């Protein structure tokens, strides 16, 4: 994270606080990083694996949102809301319950409300879609394909979070949210293809 440099700037002889904070901190050069609770853990720790997957998911959804915005899809606002929720997902993951104090828990708690909201969105779009009669391949235009890609990244993020939940280090609602989110992204991908009049490619078994 960003920090405020201290000391004098040798080039200007002004306090460094007069300058913008640096992007780099050098605190992770030895292969360790900090959780929200202040623990220093190796960057290969499963907490950082889950955080990285969640960050990648957020980026993938951001790309899907840009493609969808170009097509005028009204669900772009929902994607933006999801991106904000993923920041909260990351906060919860970065706060291992084994070392969290009450103040940490209050700031990073994750409720069931966003899960229920996703379910409402899923039901709403599902009612407008044609029945699913075959395996759908990621396709259906740029918006749809990007949403399918986001769904795949979401599944990986969920796989990273589940062991943390099972170990009592993360809130079960975080894993539930990611599970519903992958379903939402799948349904939304189909909806985007339908609204754009794009054909969904289906799996065809190759001849033996």
UniProtKB/TrEMBL annotation:
Family from the record: Belongs to the Cob(I)alamin adenosyltransferase family.
Organism lineage string: Eukaryota, Metazoa, Chordata, Craniata, Vertebrata
Residue ranges of domain Cobalamin adenosyltransferase-like in the record: 23-192
Gene Ontology BP, a term: cobalamin metabolic process
Top-rank lineage group of the source organism: Eukaryota
Record text on subunit structure and interactions: Homotrimer.
Alphabetic keyword roster: ATP-binding, Nucleotide-binding, Transferase
Catalysed reaction, written as an equation: cob(I)alamin-[corrinoid adenosyltransferase] + ATP = apo-[corrinoid adenosyltransferase] + adenosylcob(III)alamin + triphosphate
Protein's recorded name: Corrinoid adenosyltransferase MMAB
Ranges of Basic and acidic residues composition bias in the record: 11-21
Location of the region described as Disordered in the Swiss-Prot/TrEMBL record: 1-25
Purpose of the protein: Converts cob(I)alamin to adenosylcobalamin (adenosylcob(III)alamin), a coenzyme for methylmalonyl-CoA mutase, therefore participates in the final step of the vitamin B12 conversion. Generates adenosylcobalamin (AdoCbl) and directly delivers the cofactor to MUT in a transfer that is stimulated by ATP-binding to MMAB and gated by MMAA.
Pfam families hit by this protein: Cob_adeno_trans
One MF term in the entry's GO annotations: ATP binding
């Amino acid at each position: 994270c960003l920090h405020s440099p201290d000391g004098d700037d040798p080039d200007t002889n002004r306090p460094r606080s007069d300058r913008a904070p640096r992007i780099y901190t050098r605190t992770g050069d030895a292969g360790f990083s900090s959780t929200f609770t202040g623990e220093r853990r190796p960057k290969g720790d499963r907490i950082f694996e889950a955080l990285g997957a969640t960050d990648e998911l957020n980026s993938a959804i951001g790309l899907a949102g840009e493609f969808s915005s170009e097509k005028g899809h009204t669900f772009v606002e929902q994607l933006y809301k999801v991106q904000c929720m993923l920041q909260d997902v990351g906060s919860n993951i970065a706060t291992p319950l084994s070392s969290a104090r009450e103040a940490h828990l209050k700031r990073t708690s994750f409720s069931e409300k966003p899960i229920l909201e996703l379910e409402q969105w899923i039901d709403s779009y599902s009612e407008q879609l044609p029945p699913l009669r075959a395996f759908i391949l990621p396709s259906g235009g740029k918006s749809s394909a990007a949403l399918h890609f986001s769904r795949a990244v979401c599944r990986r993020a969920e796989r990273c979070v589940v062991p943390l939940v099972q170990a009592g280090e993360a809130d079960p609602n975080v894993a539930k949210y990611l599970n519903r989110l992958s379903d939402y992204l799948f349904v939304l991908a189909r909806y985007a293809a339908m609204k754009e009049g794009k054909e969904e490619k289906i799996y065809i078994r190759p001849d033996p």
